[in-house]
Amino acid sequence: MPALPLQIMSLVADFMIFGLVVYYFIRLRNQEKELRKKETRIDTNYHQIVDDALSKERKIIDDATAEADQIIGDAKHINQGVRDEVNQALQMLVADIQKRAYEAAQDFTANYQLSLKDLSQTSLRQFQDIARSLQSDLQNQVKEFHTSLLPNLEKQLEEYKKSRLDQTEKIVTKIIERASQELINKSISLEDHKDLVRQSLEKAKKESVFD
Amino acid sequence: MEQLDLSDFFTTKSESLDFSTRLSGIARQIYETGFNLEPSLLTEFGIQKKDHFLSLLRNNQINVASNSALSEFFNLIIQKISSLPVVTLTIAFEPDNQTLRDLSQWFTLNINRQVVFEIIVDPKLIAGAAITYNGRYEDYSVKTKFTQIVASSLSN
Q1: Which of A74, A78, B16, B34 is deepest in the core (most CB within 10 A)?
Q2: For testing the chain A interface, which of B150, B152, B155, B156 should be mutated: the one with the most A CBs within 10 Å?
Q3: Are residues B68 and B119 both part of a single domain?
């Protein structure tokens, strides 16, 4: 029997524990529900923010595109204007250069013709002077040739003629001598040669060559 | 000994030098054992000149059995050869041995002296001879006269 109060106490304790566990679960569930609500709320907020951001972005892009188109359009307009201005300036420059070149060419031609005229007049005068000088020199040389050089030349020519004739005579003599020597030498017999050598020795003896 | 005639052995200077050299060779062999004169002479000079040489020894009364007599005679000949006068003959033809011997004999007969010749052949002389002896030169060739004749013919 003493065990009955204990059993009752134990049973009460078990109920209390059970109640605590149930309480804990209920509370945990409530907390989960709360969290889910929060999550849903946050998600909704997030999507709203993203949508706002996207709409803002689109707007910014559209604005930027519109502005860029306007800038490009302005730039094209300015570019064309500058090009026209440069072309105009260049045309004016070319026209100016052509004008100046034409003027310079005319000046140069005029100067050149003037110089040419001066030069031809000077050259003509100089040529006439040189021609006169040459004529005078030539006359002097002809005169000198007739008075001194010609007689000398004639004399030298005569001497040359004489020396050439002498040379020719010597050559002819030598040729005749050689030809005759060979002919005579070959036509003399050995005995005659010996006799003539003996005669030479006799003459040498008479002239006391061997004394 | 004065009349030692060597004209049978040589006529020109080069021949005389050759003869002298060969004779000196024999003279050096005289005192060698087994020396025999005749074979030595035959070897050096040939049969004809050997006979002439033996005649020369006989004519000069040289005792061939005496080595000293032979040696003395050989030396005498070599000396004589070196003292022979040289006659330079310029002639217009190539002389043969007989001609040279004849000319050598002419000297022996006419001036009582043996000479040796130095022969120069120059066809330009035509004929005759130009002689050089003891430093004296004389031209007896036909060339001189011939040149004179040609020159006078051309000038006329």
Answers
A1: B16
A2: B150
A3: no
Q: Tell me the ipTM for this assembly.
A: 0.86
By the CB < 8 Å criterion, does A176 face chain B? Answer: yes
Q: Which of B63, B83, B103 is the last residue of a domain?
A: B83
pTM: 0.52
Q: How far is CA B40 from CA A23, A77, B24, B43, B46, in A?
A: 175, 143, 12, 5, 10
Residues 187-206 of A with CB under 8 A from B: 188, 190, 192-194, 196-201, 203-205
Encode pLDDT of A106-138 as tens digits. 998 888 888 888 888 888 888 888 889 999 889
Place of tokens 């003891």: B134
Question: What domain range is B117 assigned to?
Answer: 86-155
